[in-house]
């Protein structure tokens, strides 16, 4: 076992809650068996780059994914893994900065990545990136010399927002319009039960929640009300409400209000507290839960 010190940046439970998957600042990913109370797997995944995010691709727990400051999403099959010589089954390249978060669709095929290059990408893991293109993108990431935690986005990255896919980018779709600064901001697929996973939603450094249409890439709604960075958001799996946590010290709940002529887009409004009536306009006062 690794006796050194390391910091875990991301944790995920398996579907059956028997295992915990972790990504650390030593470039490794770890799997802990909760029933045996022991470490089940430890591999060098990203060459000492911070592993900011990890996930199980589906409920079988055999396929893992990891995202790092090297800008790569790596997919691993535990059935083929050797701890002394770990090799991913494939890699996904196209981001120009480090990966902040990964969220799988749960079907074993699709996954989204939120990145410090101010974009979300949708990937199909049946189509990996060729090795020559991987080198091109990782070289570009290594040449970045800014720190997203306290610096503004470089002009070169901002200029990419208006451009299409770069040559060699194997992602299915790119979503732009939110800000990934200060912290590792999360992005998620919307729930299957209530939305059919029609949307992608994310926190934002500006204090907004941003909701994208999965198929078109268009922003369908901004939820404004926080006064500082929104790090994480969670859409209830069955009810039409979203909860957000922000660096302004508040946790907010947003409820969907359907008007008579509103048949297409969701219209979330924020509530001051659990006892107040549903509001047609977002309140100015912060809510705390």
Keywords:
289 residues; mainly beta; 4-stranded antiparallel beta sheet; 3 helices; 20 strands
Write up what this structure looks like:
This protein is mainly beta and 289 residues long. Helix content is 7%, strand content 37%. The protein has helices spanning 131-142, 155-159, 192-195, and strands at residues 8-13, 19-24, 28-33, 38-44, 51-56, 63-68, 73-77, 90-92, 99-104, 110-115, 119-124, 173-176, 187-189, 199-203, 209-213, 219-223, 230-235, 241-246, 251-256, 268-270. The chain has a 4-stranded antiparallel sheet with strand order 1-2-3-4, with no helix packed on it. The chain has a 4-stranded antiparallel sheet with strand order 5-6-7-8, with no helix packed on it. A 4-stranded antiparallel sheet has the order 9-10-11-12, with no helix packed on it. The longest helix has 12 residues, at 131-142. The radius of gyration is 19 Å and the shape is globular.
